[in-house]
Amino acid sequence: MARRLSAFGFLCLFIAPQLSAAPPRLQIDHRGTVTCVAWSANGLRIATASQDGAVRVLDTATGKELLHFASGHAVRGIALSPDGKTLALSQEGKGVSIWDTAKGQRQHSNGYTNYSPEHLAFTPDSQTVMGIGVGALFNWKVTGGITIGGGVNPGGGAAVAPDAAIGGWAEAGGLLRLFENVPNGGIRSHTLQVGNARCIAFGPGGKLLAVGGEDREVQLWDLTAGGRKKIGSLTGLPNPPARLSISADGSALAAVDAGGTTIRVWDLARRRTRRQIAHHRGKVGSLALSPDGKLLATTGRNGNVLLLWNVATRELTQQGPPRELSARELARLWTDLADKDYDKSDAAWRKLAAAGDHAIPFLKERIRPIAVPPLDLKRVETLLAELDSERFATREKATRELIGLGEPAVVPLQRLLDRPPSAEAEWRARSVLEKLSEPVLTPDRLRALEVLELLEQLRSLKAVALLQEIERDALIPQIRQEARQASQRAAAAREKKK
Questions:
Q1: How many independent structural domains does the chain possess?
Q2: Range of 134's domain?
Q3: Which residue in 29, 108, 131, 190 has its CB near the most CB atoms, within 10 A?
């Protein structure tokens, strides 16, 4: 059930569930129109600012107000420092200022009143603030020193990475101007042509760029060294995307369509829809994913309401008695589980969930070969030993062969590093791990990840046992990690229910 609280902590309404998606977990009323929101690094607090200049810091679990002060002017952008001690505010005609989160007092102002961008972020050391708007940039070391720039005609959207590693804006025609923070304290700038861009968002470390254009897709771009290429797209919105948000850990992306009432959240690792919210109250003004991608904050464009949504995983409704499925039905649902049509794949997921423990033997039979692909473990152990051979040629050959094994070699290599090995073997093991390719999201891999989520939601003893088995035996790092996390969450949920 969702709780509705005023910003002063008064519980006044419970919201009834709706069929299309779970209702908001929390509704917080404000006296003024909310213009922007920002999460703390640990996700336990959220800061909001209003058109009337009021700033609030709230507990995300309860909605309780922890801090409230008047900043004096309308706020365009807001950011909480990673250490939680300071708050950056961008205000119309006042530039950017730093405030003490314990006392609500202004500490510093940068003095550039013509630069008040909508997007702000702190670097991990909490010492630098990057601010980006369409045609406006500044990079401000709070202890002194600032870089500013701008002077571009408005075009598309603007954004800054959650860790201030990169920021930029889109000009008319789809030319993106990108600005990267570099280790020596400077900024490196470059451009990228992506086609028409209505809105953009950056992932942590400046490695991922999301672009929403005139069509209904969200393009994904790799910005890593040697990358800068389109790597895929996300679909499912009924209208072109208007706003985007990527979580600070890079696990999720949220978008709201131009109609302002439909939100879709995707799991970036799986490139699949995680949630769709089609019953937002009023048009969405802004949206921001929590650092771990499990909660989404939205504001109404014409209202004084902040809503928090649970977007961590799909949730099962009341299931009723488990239903046995025929071998033919199970095989068809397994095929549908990786279908590009989200409605079709989601229906398959829910039908398998309705089968409960009846489906587990089938799921185990299908997921094990994906999680534990055939591998000559004795040969792998020989190759690991040869990384420390006295003969250079033997070490080189073992290194090449391990690279050739691909992902299944990752877990044995990681176990080798845990021992730890000699300096030579360690250097070679780490070099192999660096060269192994990123996980490829094949249909089988996607089905395996969907099954892990399903087992977590079932939470039966047999489901948890299978999760633990996959965690123990999996040779695919992504599946191993997902199984571990799902197992821990499922076990914790069972304990809580007792």
A1: 2
A2: 2-310
A3: 131
